[in-house]
Structure of Dicarboxylate/amino acid:cation symporter:
Amino acid sequence: MKKLELHWQILIGMGLGVLFAFILSYFEWGSGFITDWIKPFGTIFINALKLIAVPLILASLIKGVSDLKDISSLSKMGLRTILTYLTTTVIAVSIGLIIVNVFEPGKSIESDTREELVESYGGDAETTRQSAQKQKESGPLQALEDLVPENIFGAASSNSNMLQVIFFAIFFGIGMILIPEKQSRPIKEFFDSLNEVILKMIDLIMLAAPYGVFALLAALVVEAPSADLFIALAYYALCVVGGLLLMIGIYALIVGIFTKKTPRFFLNGISPAQLLAFSTSSSAATLPVTMERVEEHLGVHPQVSSFVLPIGATINMDGTSLYQAVAAVFIAQAFGIELSFAAQLGIIATATLASIGSAAVPGAGMVMLVIVLGQAGIPEAGLALIFAVDRPLDMLRTSVNVTGDAAVAMLVAKSQDKLGDPQVKDWDDNYKKEESEK
Ligand code: ASP
């Protein structure tokens, strides 16, 4: 019998997870059961994905950079990558601004709903504001300073230092390019084989994906806030969702124009990573799967994907920047503040920078939203208005973040002549080979 494709398996897992949680919520013991006995499997699944992230970046980026053989190809690719990332982010923020200005969702918020929201979520909003405060207090070059770790083992010991690990890997790769090939060969072989082992580990983790997302979604349903607040915020949420879906369409279009690949090919290839991003709300946790899909299913050469994708997972967040633009203007509208054209241009700049600075973890976009609000003179207390629907929007914007990374990887690969045919390896390929060799 033909095996069901992975994205269908994951979708079924998600659907069953939601259904299971709804059914169990009817019983008094249901939510406790899900929290105690189902949720841990979701956490284990996310942990397994995160576990792979640092070794994967090290192995694949060092291999990718050292394969380039000369520094000028590296700087050319680096420049193209950063410029394309910036362009897609500015497009995303602009789409967000157009939508929120045309549909004006903030004007439909009644004042008693606003008060109810501020009352229910004021405390959470304050916590978010405090975590943003630390970022705001740092100097203008802090981000650059943070890029260079003083100890690689220290940096590699936490997933929140991904950019430092990327810096080390690129630096290490450059060192390898600059020494004679005879001397770099053993270390290159070591990283090549480490890379293969890690890719195989990702295949194994993905076997558990349908069960992992089942657990994650079931836990989300029982922890979700009341439906009434969702309804009050539906118009705002619809604007964000509409913008995010439009963005996915734009990626498919741009990829089609520049690479001649059909939208179906692109979206089919990347869909398991999109679904995982949706279930985990973390582009960092999804990175191993994004890399695998982009290399094996979209045909991007590992030299490009290993460079473009880890950087993208940390700095390219188009979904996040679009959401920040809509949320900022929505809050201004709800408080009756008129934003001038200049203030909206300011939002393009700050939302672009804030999305670069957002960590690739759940809820990070909302923390950085505080900075966008601060710059535009919008009351930060307004965060309380959007708290109730933040999680579902986070799920969708993370999917868009990951889709954007994949699209840019294809564009950069095409421009470097490194876009080929998909080379799909099944998780049990080696096993089958050994069997047939017997
Ligand atoms: N959760 C998002 C990500 O990991 C970031 C955010 O928008 O909160 O890509």
